[in-house]
Amino acid sequence: MYALLLRMMFLLSPERIHHLAFAAMKLADRVAPARWVMRKVLVVDEPILRNTAFGVEFPAPLGLAAGFDKDAGGVDVWAPLGFGFAEIGTVTAQAQPGNPAPRLFRLPADRALINRMGFNNHGAAAAAERLRGRRTGAVPIGANIGKTKIVEPADAAGDYATSASLLGPLSDFVVVNVSSPNTPGLRDLQAVESLRPLLQAVLDSVQVPVLVKIAPDLSDDDIDAVADLAVELGLAGIVATNTTIRRDGLRTDAAEVAAMGAGGLSGPPVADRSLEVLRRLYRRVGDRLVLISVGGIETADQAWERILAGATLLQGFTGFIYGGPFWTRRIHRGLADRLRANGYRSITDAIGAEHAANA
């Protein structure tokens, strides 16, 4: 059924259908009977899936990645849709329109997306106002913050601190995004000498846990350096990974991909590298940091693999687009089944288990 609906939705432009689908979700959430049905059908309430990470209780491990709810316009929607948490943003200190359209592209043959949205959002103050209206009982919400495009890299720390100070008190955690390929010069901030003052400025601005989101295109040595810095500064964790600028191994015709132009590629094509980065991070930091794994997770088997590789929490965006509203349910039920089948009493006990087995 959803496959047919997806084909119909694909008749419209990606950005247009995004706004329509999101509006439909928010409308359903505002109607109490519809919200009750969504919770009844989509939420997997399994004690074995509950976990506490950096002092925050998560009812289930799979959350919505940043990029879908850019302005915190649907913070109450994600709980009845079965997500264990959600990340709003990316939000910048100043409102900005983002890059010119078209800026979002589908690769159905790869079940992937390319985007060069450019952090289009209404600014941190507007997002903060919406967060103030969160409904009691909503799942944990993280605020993903990025650099305002017109702000020079030398002034980035203050720009991030402004967003953090506005959004931190209203969020359960803050994610510092220095890894989108769609803001000029942003990924240069992943270099430790640039990243240190930026992260320290954010830490000084909030009382909630702070994480950093990194790109899959970092070298292994740079991944190690960021991990070491995160431990040194006392960050709560790392989100790995963002979208990739690579285009190798795609099923979609190369000329068609080239015509789409620049942007970050998400979905299954980034899955292998995302898993590699996760494993490297866990070997480097163990349980000293919370690792949130994102990138190409479509099935319960892949989600289970990420948990065993060291992920405390999981995120998805593209998988939700292609998998539909039952995607979260399938993954959470699959994880609960695998935990029981392997004799685990809690998902916490399975985190990083493959490393212990190989020690």
- Total of DSSP H or I helical runs spanning 4+ residues: 14
Helix-strand sequence:
HHHEEEEEEHEHEHEHEHEHEHEHHHH
Unreliable segments of 5+ consecutive residues: none
Q: Can you give the helix content as a percent range?
A: 40-55%
Broad shape: globular
- Termini gap: 45 Å
Query: Largest sheet, order of strands side by side?
Result: 3-4-7-8-9-10-12-13
What's the average pLDDT? 96
Structure summarized in a few sentences:
The protein has 359 residues and is α/β, with parallel strands linked by helices. It is built from 14 helices and 13 strands. Helix 5 packs parallel to helix 6.
Q: Can you give a write-up of this model?
A:
The protein is an alpha/beta fold and 359 residues long. It has helices spanning 2-9, 14-30, 32-42, 124-131, 156-167, 192-203, 220-233, 254-260, 271-285, 300-309, 318-323, 327-341, 347-350, 353-358; strands at residues 51-53, 56-58, 62-64, 85-91, 104-107, 112-115, 141-145, 173-177, 210-214, 237-240, 264-266, 290-294, 313-316. Strands 3-4-7-8-9-10-12-13 form an 8-stranded parallel β-barrel, surrounded by 6 helices. A 3-stranded antiparallel sheet has the order 5-6-11. The model has no long low-confidence stretch (mean pLDDT 96).
